[in-house]
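Section 3.1: Structural characterization of target chains.
Under the original work plan, the team committed to producing a structural model for every single-chain target entering the pipeline before any wet-lab resources were allocated. The record below documents one such target. The sequence was received from the expression subgroup and is listed exactly as submitted; it comprises 141 residues.
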Amino acid sequence: MTREHITTTESETFELGVSLGSHAARGDVFAITGDLGAGKTVLAKGIAKGMGVDDEVTSPTFSLLEIYERPLPLYHFDLYRIERTDELDHLCFEEYWEGDGVSVIEWAEHAAERLPANAIRIVIRQEDAATRRICIEHPGH
């Protein structure tokens, strides 16, 4: 099932993330794609907030992974700097994606075929300076 949302402010994009995070379950993988500045990190921050993460959530562009230990752990990935999928060979990210926490992956297209089949795929398209078209595909629903 695919759902489409239109947001016209950063706070609307954040609140959509909060809604997604509040319904997140063990093993969920949110694979987020979109152009630079489309709102991937804003959505990721909302998902974290919806999961009860009160820490300052920033995109782990240089560390690639930020872990937020909670009863339901959050693994926040940013794959912007990954240029080839073979760069992921020694990082063992699949262990997190297939684990018992929730994974949020920005620039998920850089992991392409490595993503689990049940990943919730989110595409953010910037329509204009304020408007975002956010398509969320839940496999198997």
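The CA atoms of residues 21 and 37 lie 21 Å apart.
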